[in-house]
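hey can u check if this looks right to u? its 171 residues, i copy pasted from the old doc so theres a chance i mangled smth
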Amino acid sequence: MAKVTGILGKKVGMTQLFDSKGDVHPATVLQAGPCVVTQHKTQTKDGYDCAQIGLVEFMKESKLSQPERGHLAKNNVPPVKFIREVPIEADGDAAVKAGDRVLIDLFEGEKFVDVVGVRWREVTRVDVSDYRLDWFIGVSVARVQGHANVGAYGQCAGDGSQPASAGRRER
């Protein structure tokens, strides 16, 4: 049977692990899965082989767009948070079917796995007013975590760490 080679998840938080010498090592806690196959793309129909999988989380169906609802309803799949494509490995003639569940036991017996993440940046009030980035508000907590500062946009602008003037300046 064909096998999906990846799974979707999200970061839950950070923790610490202690080794035998008592040294502390930081560790990231991930929630991996459960995922569901939303579509199987084939070489003959789409030009490449992959499985389109989605992360199953509680989500109101009204939060999905109408095309997303139609895509998921066509294959009788529950609402998913986001959808990504992952490669598949062929193990015989059986194919991956839409609606198949992808669980963490996929990595059973593996010592190492590759993790790919997405980093978001926060936009400050200056960015919103000066560069019309109001669409970017509310996407991230990176600013709260203390990194991903905006930086300079032009000559002599500094490093972006100075607060904007919130009113009339005294001369």
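The longest strand covers residues 9-18.
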